[in-house]
Structures are given as C-alpha cells and as structure tokens.
Amino acid sequence: MMDQKRQAGETVEQAEEQALKSAGEVPEEIKDPLAELLNQAQNAYTAYIQAQKEVAKGYKQRKEQTEKVYKEAEQKMNNACNAAIEKALKVREKAEQQAEELCNTAREKANEIYQVSVRQVLDDRNEAIGQAWKINKENTEQAWKIFQGGQG
C-alpha cells in the first residue's frame, strides 16, 4: 500500500507538472487585449510626439525662410534707396552747376549791358557837352561880333 500511495503521489505530481506545462502554453495563444491597446496607445503617442517635432521643424524652417526673404527685400530696398539718393544728389549737383553757369552768364551779360550803357551815356554826355560848347562858342562869337560891330 505504501507503494501504491507513492505511485499515486508520483502520478499526481506528474499530472500537476503536465498541467503546468499545458497552462504555460495557453498564455502564448491567448493575447491580453489591454496590453495590445496599451501598445497601440504608446505607438500613437510616439507618432504624435514625432509629428510635433516635424511641425516644430517645419515652423522653424518657414520662419528662417521668411526672415531670409525679409532681409533680402530689405537689402534690395536699401540698395534702391541709396541708388535713388545718389541719383538725386547728382541731379542736384548738375542743377546747381547749371544754375551757377547761368548766373555767371547773366552776370557777364549784365556787366556788358552796364558797360555799353555807361559808354552810351558818356558818349551822349560828351556829345551834349560838345554841342553845348559849340552853341556856347557860337553865341560867344556872335555876341563878340555884335559887341565889336556896335563899337566900330
């Protein structure tokens, strides 16, 4: 009887081991739906974080491009402004030079007119003085003739 008990104990142990082995194979076949959902959630979160990084990268690139375009436009406008200022300065200098030349020409013309006028006035004066002298001389001679004629 002892042998039977021992055999029965061994058989129970073997059955337990076999049951444990069989039980170990069952979890591989049965998947935990909660673990699968958790895995999907972790994958979705990882994809979300990656997308956020991509959006931030895209935003940074767009900002850099916008700044570059702005700086280029600003530089072009500065260059255009400087060119316009230089052109305006050249136009002003040319206008001043022309005005100075016209002023000098006007001065020379005014001086010529002045000199012609002075010569004319002096000529007219000298002619008037000459005529007055001639008339005075004629009157003096006539008066002398009359004076001499009355005495002699």
Any descriptors?
97% helix; mainly alpha; 152 residues
Structure characterization notes:
The protein is built from 2 helices and no strands. It has helices at residues 2-29, 33-151. The chain starts with a helix and ends with a helix. The chain is mainly α. The mean pLDDT is 87.
Shape: rod-shaped
Q: First CA to last CA: what distance?
A: 220 Å
Protein structure class:
mainly alpha
Biggest β-sheet description: none
Poorly predicted runs are none
Which band does the percent of strand residues land in? under 5%
The ordered H/E elements are HH
**Alpha-carbon Rg, integer:** 64 Å
* Multimer state: single chain
Q: What layout of secondary structure does this protein have?
A:
Blueprint: H1 2-29, H2 33-151
